[in-house]
Amino acid sequence: MPSYKVSYFTFKGLGEPVRFMLAYANVDFIDNRVEWEDWPKLKPTLPLGQLPLLEIDGRAFHHCIPICRYLGSIFNLTGSNAVENYEIDCIADTVNELRLKIAMWYYSYKRVKNEKYDELINDSIPYYLGKIEDQAATKDGYLALKGKTTWADIYAVAIFDYIHDLMGYDIVKDCKNIKKIQQKIMSADGVKRYLKNRPADQIITFN
Ligand SMILES: N[C@@H](CCC(=O)N[C@@H](CS)C(=O)NCC(=O)O)C(=O)O
User: Fold this and answer.
1) May I ask the CATH architecture of the domain 82-187?
2) By Cβ atoms counted within 10 A, which residue in 41, 43, 189, 199 is the most buried?
3) CA 174/CA 206 separation, integer angstroms
């Protein structure tokens, strides 16, 4: 069994999809939660000076979505042809766009003047959630491929879990199809075990 080590900060963020992927696949991994005071020393050693970083037997992988895609290919959580893989990429990108809008608000506008909140909750969130929920409705309890869990389902569930922390409420609470996916991923044995032992977040900011 290869050794897996995930390095990320002490909160969910972009580390959580990587942690969820490994948990879902039932593999043991070192959950290296980097404290803010240790960051300046670690940063220059990283491929782009950013986290998350995944090490598999010492080989480093970076960029959250490519890591999830790569793990998806190892753990049979990809499509079976180029079009299916395109569908998976597309939905992951849509979830990432929503995440970016919310993170931008949380880490900049909210800190400054609590600006842009109305735009976020009246426009961006319903817009993206509507698209994702509609797609999930056509896939019968999956996000990208009907009848098959893919890495994008796991990525999305982990990102929604992170967004819950940023927004202070569950933005998908009324999305019954996204909820189905969430329930399926969160109740997988490995994820359940991970969640039971998951350390409490210590949110930090990058200002
Ligand atoms: N494209 C990268 C972005 C990674 C990224 O923005 N990481 C942030 C935390 S979420 C970071 O390391 N910030 C600290 C810094 O840049 O010094 C990915 O998707 O993994």
Assistant:
1) Up-down Bundle (1.20)
2) 43
3) 31
